Amino acid sequence: MPASRRLPAAGALLVLIGAAIAAVPALVSDFVLLQIVIKSLWLGIAGTSLAFLIGQAGLISLAQTAVFGASGYLMAILVLDHGLTIWAAVAAAVAAGPVAGLVIGAISRRSSDLYLMMLTLAIGVFTFFFAQQYQPITRGHTGFNGFDAPLLFGADLSERKPLFYVSAVAAVAVVALFRLVMRTPAGLAFRGLRDNRDRLQALGYSTSATTISAFAVSGFAAGVGGVISVWYNGAISPGSIDITRIIELLIVVTIGGTIRIEGAFLGALVVTLLRNYANDYTNRTETLVGAAFMAIVLLSRHGLLGILLNLKSLAPKALRFFRGQRMASEKEAVA
Amino acid sequence: MRPRNSKLLWRLLAFLAMFTLIVSACGNDDSSDDGAPTAAPEATAAAEPTAAATAAPTAASTDTSSDEADTTPRTQGITIGAISTLDGPFAALGDFSMHGVKLALLEYGGQLEGTDTRDSVSGASVAGVPIELVIEGSDATPDVAVEATRKMVEQDNADIIIGPLSGDEGLALKDYIRDIPDVTLVNGTSASQDLTLRDPAANVFRFGGDGAMWTFGVGTYAYEELGHRRIATIAEDYSYPYDQVGAVLTEFCAAGGTVTDRIWVPLGTQDYSSFVAQIPDDVDAVFFAMGGTDAINFVKQYDEFTGQAIPLIAGPTAVDQSVLAELGDRAEGLVSSGPVVDDSGLSEFDAFAARLDEVFPGQTPNIFNIYYYIATKSALQALEEVGADISDGSRAFQAALAGQSWTTPIGPVFLDDKRQAVVDMYLRQVQDGSQVTIRTLPQVNATLGFDRDDYIAKGSFSRENPPCG
Q1: Which of residues 289-308 of A touch B (CB under 8 A)?
Q2: Which of A172, A186, B10, B88 has most Cβ atoms within 10 angstroms of its Cβ?
Q3: Is the CB of A142 less than 8 angstroms away from the CB of B21?
Q4: Does A234 touch chain B if contact means CB atoms closer than 8 Å?
Q5: CA–CA separation, B378 vs B186, rounded Å?
Q6: Global pTM?
Q7: Which of A317 and B17 is assigned the larger pLDDT?
Q8: Between 3.30.420, 1.20.1270, 1.10.3470, 3.30.70, what CATH number should domain A23-285 receive?
């Protein structure tokens, strides 16, 4: 499609997304807006960082909560312990995401597959224990409580609607950024890493540099997710980045599907809904989440998004099928 | 084309799927831990839940939203929301807590809807007003506790929250509930001092002790009666054990004793050999403050390494009735202080124990079922006093709650002006697997008898605080 035709299309899409975002608060209750929608948004934003790594670069990382926690903790520490102004702390925290990604990428640049998972799991768990034990910086097990979300153009982000709009805009921005990166030559190199490491190397690319950059790019989203999660919770503690949360992020991404990074939001929504409402009906919420995860892995390799996309490709076929039927019956009538 | 690698990825994900299912089904997240011990395994088995449908009692949902309740007279019932740790490392303790909540509601005409932990109690009423119970669980992390509570308040229109179980959950809920003055939080077993001591919230009530109060008396006893002069402490490295060690040292050092080492172990430590090796030979006793499996592992290894050559003094939950059976003979003779003893002779205690065993066969009193029972019963009694009318934004109810003074299964309780209980503690010793009273410590308050301003000015207990010789 030539660029001249793509621009209006992109514009129309943006308007459509904007309208949808604007409509949400009117459609759902305050509770759902906060605990389902906003939670899904920040969990989804953090999820996109993993969806990007898995889906684009073929790197299954269990260290994304470490990045998430680094940003969240940094913001809380700068504001509550060092009295920095909130937006300076936010800027630092968001910048910390890619930096943490760089570090994690540098540590794990030579590994892939199972070894990468073990290495990143170690990093994720290390970060948890650091937060739990290193009191002078992290306040230990209790962590930081009573964090007030900032004001933005006079709107208090501890209120639900403003927080929702900011989260939604952040989600769109993160997705747009990822899509932009995916179109660059670097994005192609990431996919090369996923599809055939040896060949990528044979072509003269450095797999180490590519891995590090992929982690750095993904770190941005994890950092943004971490910052919004602290606004949402008003707190951060080791419990926000423990092994349960590490697995949860993986579940989110797998349920959503990694074929498109947007799948993370779908996965986050499903997990959040399950966590909130499943225990009205069963005592086994965790088992249900695990079973949903397994079912998705076994039935649809691209997650729920894969199923939806399949439906989409089925729709024209079905349409053609019915149209064929009608034409056939019309023919019959004529005959 | 994505041949080999994506297939491998796929296998990894499938492998992870199995791993996740196992992890999530067991709920054995031992990473987040707080203010309370893990329970004996047989208790877990006893409370094994079945996947029966829970009643979702959300019939009433019109006039209870916190902002509008002031104007409209209440025609529907009052909703009590109970929160405890129903998932994660303390799931068994969550079951104990809910036993306590339900027992209290049964006294008000309620009937169990099922044997499951999440099964509610129906038919209870106070002053003719039906009382509904909704139950939510956390996994002992503050984030999840706030979300679960928010769901009960906003979705189920809960007017009164009973819980939570662990210390840092309590602090997080205090921050949340403070902004919703019409809703009342009656603490379960969260033992964090600062739930009520520093920066209290007007709608938060605690009818039990905190970590320091539970440990009251044992420092003085160790110095004066047992004749100890130098002790070492070994405890888990977070706020709840800080409170216990802090309380012991505050008294022990004031009496003239000294502490040689304060050893802090990470939560969930399995191998205590290197920590036991740090305990000096020339101390008179070792105070240990741990919970659940940590306490079990530590006592076992300490016993094996040293034969308890240097006597142990226990923290309150390290030898709670919920872990005593698991500790077995190794716990014999251990001295501690704490809120629950088995031989108090209080008719209220015996009645509670009998009723507990009758409704939930095989269950015995421990700190969790008793504390949640006391919290729920206090709330129900206060409701009765105001005719179950909370249409004034719970003002009268909260005033009545603050004025509660009654004899609980573990002795008399009343609240101070910060809505923190003044309660009896017991200096006790393990004999034949039960807690036997050495001495009753009447009316222990939040500042352990010290001047309030002085006590608060000393700062929260920490790794180094209080300082001591």
Answers
A1: 289-291, 293-294, 297-298, 301
A2: B88
A3: no
A4: yes
A5: 9
A6: 0.83
A7: A317
A8: 1.10.3470
